[in-house]
Design a protein that fits this description.
The protein has 597 residues and is an alpha/beta fold. It has two domains: 317 residues, ABC transporter type 1, transmembrane domain (ABC transporter transmembrane region fold, Up-down Bundle), CATH 1.20.1560; 239 residues, Rossmann fold, CATH 3.40.50.300. It is built from 18 helices and ten strands. The protein starts with 16 loop residues before the first helix and ends with a helix. 29% of the residues are buried. The structure holds adenosine-5'-diphosphate and magnesium ion. Adenosine-5'-diphosphate binds next to helix 10.
């Protein structure tokens, strides 16, 4: 398999047929538009190519001969050609833009769906910033390619080839002479194209580096200032900035050679036509009209050749973008987004009760790692309906991991996890996550009001909201907020203290009527002012509910029905507070330490 991690590198590869075909599969549903666009393009090109020929006819038939035969007809025809060309160009542009928008709408939809479905382990490896870039810049590149590239590249090719044929038919020997400048132009364009592509890529990489740099240091500005590192950062920035400038300068130097170069070569072609054509006219082997038409066609010929390298660049970067988009689309979704095989699909926990006497939650000999060192080995734990279980243990022992497994964010390598007697892999995981609600150490609040955050998208049920606030013991807290429930929490809840955010997240959890409540170090970094509110809220919330409490401070676990000490990947000690104290193991030592300090 190709590497899974999303990388910023722009791969330099010649047009990849496979990628193009896959992109075309996104275009296929809109093939009618493509057909219309191609037809419009063909008509526009036809009308465009008609013009020099009409001029030739007028010169040779009317002007040179001093005759009016057919003159008015030619003039009208020329007018029709000009109007037709512009009307069909307009049509082509409108259709192609529509096509581009439709394709990227689809692509964005698919990509975002995938972003939601990817397993958490993907996000462990990939910073969120790059995922956003994927969305915006890659899709934009694809759009640009479709709306300014795809059809017009075909149009350009048709145009260039038709002109070559027309020139050949008009006058073979004159065509052979102009071929010198055409070949010269193609060689020059190719030579420049390679350099332009490399420099463009360097510039893009510099842009990515610069963005990453700015993003990191602006996000960490507090630390930068706090440690007085402004000068160092400024120096680092200067290096990036200089690199950036160098790539930018090189690119503009290249372009300032490229465009005049192409102008020069096309002027050379005109000189050849003027010279050989002039001699031909004087010698009587060629008509004036043919020479002028030749010049007209050459002009139309060099236009597309001139921006071919630009279009090639667009195509290249769009294909690189496509590759990255497809890499993400091809990643495996988290298992819960595929439907389990029919033989394994069992009823929702709600549909059948817990088997008589079976625990509500059971870990059986679970083994797990995140891809490196083993985190859990032969881990077993059972929790009964209504039981309050505490999990304690040193940092890094795997307490949070246990929760991640129970919620199905990761799957055990060995062993099984049962909910109401059923392997959670066979359950509707969305339903399970609505029943088993996790309150993490750092709750995430979305920008909005306190009420928005409590409802979390659910309907407002006033009576239940009252019950919720009461059962979390936060009625007074809400009343003291400047706008009560309508107080805005700021981006990520930035206007609230950690403790206040935690209280809101409690209400959110309770409002959703969880069956099991998990608190993972929920009192971990609470300010002393709200600590009392938070602990009493926790106590109230847990009344009569199956709960799992992970805590550093042992005061909060003393009252639990059962305490499990996790060490070395398994449950080392298990039992109520009193029994564990008497056992004189890790727990009693830890408790002794905390009491005396
Ligand atoms: N997403 C992750 N990817 C890789 N390793 C992880 C990840 N999360 C935790 N770990 C590792 O797994 C071990 C257990 O972590 P964790 O369950 O968070 O411990 P605890 O919550 O008990 O402090 C640690 O060694 C930690 O470094
Ligand atoms: Mg933890």
């Amino acid at each position: 398999m190709r590497r899974v991690d999303v990388h910023d590198k722009v791969s330099v590869k010649d047009i990849d047929l496979r990628m193009t075909l896959r992109l075309l599969s996104f275009v296929r549903p809109h093939r009618l538009l493509v057909v219309i666009a191609l037809a419009a393009m063909a008509l526009a090109t036809g009308f465009n190519l008609l013009q020099p020929y009409i001029i030739k006819l007028v010169i040779d038939e009317n002007l040179v001969k001093g005759s009016l035969a057919g003159f008015y007809g030619y003039v009208v025809l020329f007018g029709v050609a000009v109007i037709g060309r512009n009307v069909f160009s307009y049509l082509q542009m409108v259709i192609v833009t529509t096509l581009g928008q439709r394709v990227i709408l689809d692509m964005r939809k698919r990509l975002f769906k995938k972003v939601l479905e990817l397993p958490l382990s993907f996000y462990d490896r990939n910073p969120t910033g790059r995922i956003i870039t994927r969305h915006i810049s890659d899709i934009e590149a694809v759009n640009e390619m479709i709306s300014s590239g795809l059809v017009s590249v075909i149009g350009d090719l048709v145009m260039v080839l038709s002109i070559a044929v027309i020139l050949l038919l008009l006058d073979r020997s004159l065509f052979l002479y102009t071929l010198i400048s055409i070949v010269l132009l193609l060689v020059f364009a190719h030579f420049m194209k390679v350099r332009l592509r490399e420099t463009n890529r360097a510039l893009r990489q510099n842009t990515a580096k610069m963005n990453a740099f700015l993003h990191e240091y602006i996000a960490g500005i507090g630390v930068v200032k706090g440690f007085g590192r402004e000068e160092k950062i400024r120096r680092k920035f200067r290096v990036h900035n200089d690199d950036f400038k160098r790539a930018g300068m090189k690119l503009s130097t290249l372009y300032s050679v490229y465009f005049p170069g192409v102008e020069f070569i096309s002027a050379l072609a005109l000189v050849i036509v003027l010279f050989k054509g002039g001699l031909g006219v004087i010698g009587g082997t060629i008509t004036i009209g043919t020479v002028i038409a030749f010049a007209g066609y050459l002009e139309k010929f060099f236009g597309p050749v001139k921006d071919m390298s630009d279009k090639y660049n667009i195509l290249q970067s769009a294909l690189a973008s496509c590759e990255r988009i497809f890499t993400i689309l091809d990643m495996k979704s988290s298992p819960e987004y595929g439907s389990p095989p029919a033989s394994m699909r069992l009823p929702h926990p709600e549909e059948g009760g817990t088997a008589e006497g079976a625990p509500l939650i059971e870990f059986r000999n679970v083994e797990f790692d995140y891809g490196g060192e083993e985190v859990l080995r032969t881990f077993s734990l059972s929790i009964d309906q209504g039981e309050k279980v505490a999990i304690v243990g040193p940092t890094g022992a795997g307490k949070t991991t246990i929760v991640n497994l129970l919620l199905g964010f990761y799957h055990p390598r060995e062993g099984e996890i049962l909910y109401a007697g059923r392997d959670i892999r066979t359950l509707d995981i969305g339903g399970l996550r609505r029943k088993v609600v996790l309150i993490p150490q750092e709750p995430f609040l979305f920008n909005g009001t306190v009420l928005d955050n409590i409802l979390g998208g659910e309907e407002l049920d006033e009576a239940w909201l009252d019950v919720t606030l009461k059962s979390c013991g936060i009625v007074r807290f809400v009343e003291n907020l400047p706008d009560g429930l309508n107080t805005f929490v700021g981006e990520r809840g930035s206007r609230f203290s950690a403790g206040q955010r935690q209280l809101v997240s409690f209400a959110r959890a309770i409002y959703h009527r969880p069956e099991v409540l998990i608190l993972d170090e929920a009192t971990g970094n609470i300010d002393p002012e709200t600590e009392h509110d938070v602990t009493s809220a926790i106590k109230k919330m847990m009344e009569g509910k199956t709960s799992i409490v992970i805590a550093h401070r042992l005061q909060t676990v003393v009252e639990c029905d059962k305490i499990a000490v996790v060490m070395n990947g398994k449950v080392a000690e298990e039992g109520p507070h009193g029994a564990l104290l008497r056992a004189k193991g890790y727990y009693s030592a830890l408790y002794g330490l905390q009491i005396t300090s």
